[in-house]
């Protein structure tokens, strides 16, 4: 990380605080880090160790080898940090280079509390491509003309879907096409002839996004902090949580070109924000417009909102740079369905709390289990200390009922059970997971993210996964290494990895509305033999287990909505 002076105490670090922010002609208070929206970019090198003094933060994609206590999601690896408290996250960046990001892991706080994590090669090492002249970060986000926490609280109250966003943003700014936004549109400068690296992050809460730069080709060289075999495209598609590193050559006539992003909306009939966010790629030698003349930048041609063919062509273009160590002999083979559902309301329930179709409330599940966070212990604490009654280890390795997952699903299968069920893996197990989308209520693309691991995406396809025919499609030579897979709409994806990181690791849809509805499960990886295969002891300042009064409070403010102020202290050791 670039710092002029290493801070000596937590009090010198940035603050998580409420800040007045004006967007779309309206000023409102939102949560920020140090008053910045988005938050600061953290820059480190592969091999650096970090010490972060913070109140509730998640380093998305960092593997956290034996340091699961620093992963961040509350009631998964730690209890919430209570008012006046603090917690120091300690971990190492190891074997990862490229772009990740950090964000709040507390309900919809991450709508405004997020930033980039840039991981450069080890000191003395180089990129596997010619070093770019410039290095820019482009973070895509969503903006509501309301407090995002109020938006999700209202949806939780009604049981319906939350209101869609009012704008998308690039580095926190909506851009030229929105009201009251032109003067703050982000400018990305370039010089003719140079080749630059642009790190694109989708930090949106609930929307996959297409991304393009007018008249410029994008050479993809990395994704989710892993290098990939370079390929060229005119459009990217990123699900929330995903990152893509691209090289861009400034080989066009000097001018101003729009950088633009808008929705890939795969759920048929579901409302979505159909606006377009822009920034400007500006050549330094671009001619100035004549006085009084407005010169609009060139606009890229973006795919249609429902262009699944383009999304698929992009996601299936990824390959690792060379032959990989993808597991071939599998110890644990899981088949996990992922999709939405509906919970019928009891006859006595108020209609105002049953706003999903036909007097129901929206839910979601994996293998018909809608995941429920515990409220008194974190899963990792309960596992480490042997506390009974917090979770069960009976998450099913396959759906309880076999059905036509992407067809006309019987209404009897639309309502999942609720539970805090985990799946246990032995250290070193070679794991394959077939993730199968369902058409229950509606089918859509789900960005499925696994904490604590990178995994190989060996195949994806549409319809129901058929082991008799689809296994032949597996790429066991150079599959891409990712931490988030775009599960195709009405389709499936297959991932493989070695369970070499002990802890409790949540696997969830990164559409935040879906994880709130229960589209998640947890993989509990046991300790292996030796220090490097054993979970470290819990830190002395690990947040305490909630008191009875605090647990009562959680009935009114769900435990994933801790909004108390805190500080961040970052050090390299």
UniProtKB/TrEMBL annotation:
Q: Where in the cell is it found?
A: Secreted, Extracellular space, Apoplast
Gene3D superfamilies linked: Cupredoxins - blue copper proteins
Which InterPro entries does the UniProt record give? Cu-oxidase-like_N, Cu-oxidase_2nd, Cu-oxidase_C, Cu-oxidase_fam, Cu_oxidase_CS, Cu_oxidase_Cu_BS, Cupredoxin, CuRO_1_LCC
- GO CC annotation: apoplast
Cofactor names: Cu cation
Presence of keyword Glycoprotein: yes
Where would I find the Plastocyanin-like domain in this sequence? 16-122, 136-285, 394-527
Q: Which reaction does it catalyse?
A: 4 hydroquinone + O2 = 4 benzosemiquinone + 2 H2O
> Into which EC class is this enzyme placed?
oxidoreductase
Please tell me where this protein is predominantly located: secreted
Q: Name one GO biological process term.
A: lignin catabolic process
| Protein keywords | Apoplast, Copper, Glycoprotein, Lignin degradation, Metal-binding, Oxidoreductase, Repeat, Secreted
GO MF terms listed in the record are: copper ion binding; hydroquinone:oxygen oxidoreductase activity
Q: What is its EC number?
A: 1.10.3.2
CDD domains recorded = CuRO_1_LCC_plant, CuRO_2_LCC_plant, CuRO_3_LCC_plant
**Is Secreted tagged as a keyword?**
yes
| Superkingdom classification of source | Eukaryota
Entry note: cofactor:
Binds 4 Cu cations per monomer.
Q: In UniProt terms, what function does this protein have?
A: Lignin degradation and detoxification of lignin-derived products.
Report the sequence similarity comment from the record: Belongs to the multicopper oxidase family.
NCBIfam families, alphabetized: laccase
Q: What is this protein called?
A: Laccase
Species this chain originates from: Centaurea solstitialis (yellow star-thistle)
Taxonomic lineage of the native organism: Eukaryota, Viridiplantae, Streptophyta, Embryophyta, Tracheophyta
